[in-house]
Design a protein that fits this description.
Largest sheet: 5 strands, mixed
Helix content: 40-55%
Distance between the termini: 38 Å
Radius of gyration: 19 Å
Strand content: 5-15%
Order of helices and strands: HHHHHHEEHEHEHHEHHH
Strand order of the largest sheet: 1-2-3-4-5
Shape: globular
Number of helices: 13
Structural class: alpha/beta
Number of strands: 5
Length: 310
């Protein structure tokens, strides 16, 4: 199975993923209907009609837990309403977001790992800071995750690769005040099952940013971060057939070619993104307190952990 940009699990692999989670296709269909019915009874949540595929992926990523799925969906729509600079005004053809896609990339790699994990690659595309806007970078990242969950992808866990080769002190100065909010939103709005996070080409001055991220992540996830001194070391963890040509892989495209493909995919779904701009929480109708930590949406604070290069 495949979309234009993403190869999906074979029926055999999908069955294996379901079995690992104690699921069947039939039970999943029934659980999606149950969650959708629950959403209709929550006055602050949007109507779930047409959003069944997102509910399905949230169930899979929440490891078949109905309560965890309900909590995650509530968190997603709550943060979507509370943090419009990351989740609002999503138009992949707008000048700010087109500019963001020229200055940075965050793309899912087309091929799954043998275990059924999706690998995503993030990096700065040009070292000039003039056109870089961190909020737009985050917005495009979250747009990519959303379209995968709602329309395009099926996978078991996530692997992230962050290439810091072209990140400058100027980038860090722009990013650091918002890093805590970004990491919290990414790990709270989405039930990401993160298998590994790989960092390559990290300059010494980026250690402060990495330490800040470690301070926000749950310890279980922080322990899955691996810092590599070179691409050869990265290839000990990811097979060459998954990595693009410019990362020493054998997948027959470069990351620059893949970003063009992915950008076309986002633009193709422009109408969906525009329709989703109004699909939010109505906090005035909420009967209980929101299940997000409002203090995590503020600026830089908190303790940092340190992670050294292997």
């Amino acid at each position: 199975m495949a979309t234009k940009t993403l190869l999906l699990p074979t029926p055999e692999k999908l069955k294996e993923i379901y079995q690992d989670l104690g699921m069947t296709e039939e039970k999943l269909d029934a659980d999606v209907k149950t969650i959708a019915e629950w959403m209709r009874k929550q006055p602050h949540l949007p109507n779930p009609d047409g959003d069944e595929r997102r509910i399905r992926m949230f169930l899979i990523l929440c490891k078949n837990s109905m309560e965890r799925t309900k909590e995650s969906l509530d968190q997603y729509y709550t943060l979507k309403s509370m943090v419009p600079e990351f989740f609002g005004d999503r138009d992949p053809t707008s000048p700010p977001l087109l500019r963001s896609m020229k200055t940075s990339l965050f793309i899912p790699l087309p091929k799954l790992t043998p275990e059924g994990y999706r690998v995503s690659l993030s990096r700065i595309r040009c070292p000039e800071i003039d056109d870089f806007e961190f909020a737009d970078y985050v917005k495009v990242n979250f747009m990519s995750i959303d379209i995968r969950l709602s329309k395009l992808d099926m996978y078991k866990k996530e692997i992230f690769v962050f290439d810091l080769k072209d990140i400058t002190m100027a980038h860090l100065t722009t990013m650091l005040p918002h890093m805590k909010k970004f990491v919290y939103c990414a790990t709270t709005a989405y039930p990401l099952r993160i298998q590994e996070i790989h960092i390559v080409n990290m300059p010494s001055y980026a250690q402060t940013m990495v330490n800040m991220v470690l301070g926000v992540l749950k310890k279980k996830i922080a322990n899955r971060i691996k810092i590599h001194s070179n691409l050869e070391d990265l290839k000990k963890h990811l097979t060459p057939d998954i990595l693009p040509l410019d990362y020493g892989g054998t997948f027959p495209k470069t990351s620059e070619e893949l970003i063009v493909d992915w950008q076309e995919e986002l633009m193709k779904h422009k109408d969906w993104y525009l329709s989703q701009n109004s699909v939010n929480c109505d906090e005035n109708k909420r009967s209980k307190k929101p299940c997000v930590k409002v203090n995590m949406l503020a600026g830089v604070e908190g303790s940092f952990r340190k992670l050294e290069v292997d």
